[in-house]
Amino acid sequence: MDRARRIAGHGLIVAFLTVLTQVGGVAWLLSLGFPRRWLGFPLAYAVLFGVAHAAAPALGRQAVPCFGEPLRMQSVVYCLTLRNFVTPEMAQVARTAAEAVAQDYPGTVTLALDGSFPFLDGMPLLPHLSHDDGQKLDFAFFYAENGTYAPGVTRSPFGYWAFELDNETDCPPVWLTTRWNMTWAQGLWPDRPLEPQRTAALVRALVADPRVGKVFLEPPLARQLGLEDAKLRFQGCRAARHDDHIHAQL
What we know:
By secondary structure, this protein is an alpha/beta fold. The chain contains seven helices and ten strands. The protein has helices spanning 2-21, 24-31, 37-55, 76-80, 88-104, 196-208, 219-224; strands at 62-63, 71-73, 85-86, 110-112, 136-140, 144-145, 148-149, 214-216, 232-233, 245-249.
């Protein structure tokens, strides 16, 4: 019984780490051969982390930078968990859009959120429904403090789930949905207003790029920002709300 429980426990850990980082489950299995797992796991993960960065370009993926300007990941957590990989084309789209915003508004830093894992088309990047091929990338909104744009700042720690709309798009109750309102969390975020000029400029730069096929943003928020374009879509009632981030895809 104890052996069965240990196997089940390791299985759950492997599943969780695989869902979170793609290679974390393999790192955990490798660490089982180390006499000190607390040391074996980070060592195994570090090796696989390096392998992922070395091998991904040959498989058609590259990492969005973790540091620098005018484009970087919103948090180093996305980099450490290997969730910042996209196709070279999507990487160039993101860079071009960030440069366009920075040209119009000098000093602007565009923050990217979830992209995809480094390997295997078709493996979902949970909780997203479509981030499974490197052709999608989320972007954080821009925010202001004391009436002035705050570079590199978001409301929530990871850029998601700080919703801008009090009255969200009218959607009927549906089963098997990831359209979470996260009502319990809204009071945790600082009262930091959206910076509309830069947010709208980023959306315009994305939809103006011929390589971009769709951009998801909640319709009421798009109207508030004065945005209208055939590429600007509502993602549907079963997908996550998009009044906390921008989703772009090739």
